[in-house]
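Record filed below.
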Amino acid sequence: MMMMTLEAETTSTLSTHVLDVALGRPARGIDATLERVTDDRMLIIGGGTTNGEGNITSLVTQTALAPGVYRLRFDSEGYFAATGRETFYPEIVIHFRVGAGIAQYHVQLLLSPFGYSTSWER
């Protein structure tokens, strides 16, 4: 059994910003979960709920992220239900890779009930 020591390899942090392009405003109240992808499972390492500006400033419960592959899941169905709208995408999942030497990752999500787009910046 492989033991994971995230603290020993830490290098990066992660934040996100979500905009509801159908309404033209930040998407407040979207729950997001951050998972680290391992060979045999997903390890939940953080999460949060978008604030009034559509931001989660820190998704990580540890101090930083180790290099590796991660998955960021957004509960879009819960958000759209709370705003009285249906959606084609009940969950939006973004897989990405964290490399060594990059201090800050910021994932952006633009969504509407029937489409979405994502990008990232450092």
